């Protein structure tokens, strides 16, 4: 699967974003080594702190389905006016959670609605990750 195809999946996932408080809608698509794609969107809450990022929704969906081998994740985000961020990058918490389940060479792809994208390894995004 190409990075652009994975970004297209993230744009699909974004359609289900529940973001009435921030207005910022995020979609994520996680690719397994077997070529299966798990989708996630951000899900906010009026109490704010229970809000979950799109990346973690995709990852936890895959983990709960029994997946263990991951290749790449694409993420997209736009504001309440539909203007896409160039690019939407995963927050620190999501980077840490990804590092629990994904190898340092795992590809994180930032994209937007033009399908322009940029890839970085998890190691680049989270150098010196916490480990026990
Ligand atoms: N958000 C994500 O879904 N992923 C990130 O990596 C950063 C932030 C969401 C959380 C919240 O619903 C909105 O974006 C604004 O912070």
Features:
132 residues; alpha+beta; Cytidine Deaminase, domain 2; 5 strands; binds tetrahydrodeoxyuridine
Summarize the structure.
By secondary structure, this protein is of the alpha+beta class.
Please characterize this protein's 3D structure:
With 132 residues, this protein is an alpha+beta fold. The protein has one domain: Cytidine Deaminase, domain 2. The protein is built from four helices and five strands; from the N terminus they run αββαβαββα. The chain has a five-stranded mixed β-sheet. A hairpin with a 4-residue loop joins strand 1 and strand 2. The chain starts with a helix and ends in a 7-residue tail after the last helix. It binds tetrahydrodeoxyuridine. Tetrahydrodeoxyuridine binds next to helix 2.
Secondary structure layout:
Elements: H1 3-14, E1 25-32, E2 37-41, H2 54-64, E3 70-78, H3 92-101, E4 107-111, E5 117-121, H4 122-125
Parallel strand pairs: 3-4
Antiparallel strand pairs: 1-2, 1-3, 4-5
Tetrahydrodeoxyuridine is lined by residues 19, 22, 24, 26, 42, 44, 51, 53-55, 90-91, 94.
């Amino acid at each position: 699967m190409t990075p652009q195809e994975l970004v297209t999946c993230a744009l699909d996932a974004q359609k289900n974003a529940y973001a009435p408080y921030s207005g910022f809608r995020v979609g994520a698509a996680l690719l397994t080594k077997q070529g299966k794609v798990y989708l996630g969107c951000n899900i906010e809450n009026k109490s704010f702190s229970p809000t979950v990022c799109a990346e973690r929704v995709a990852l936890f969906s895959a983990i709960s389905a029994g997946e263990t081998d991951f290749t790449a994740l694409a993420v997209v985000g736009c504001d309440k006016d539909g203007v896409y961020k160039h690019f939407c990058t995963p927050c620190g918490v999501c980077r840490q959670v990804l590092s629990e389940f994904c190898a340092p060479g795992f590809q994180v792809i930032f994209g937007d609605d033009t399908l322009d994208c940029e890839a970085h390894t998890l190691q680049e995004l989270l150098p010196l990750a916490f480990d026990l």
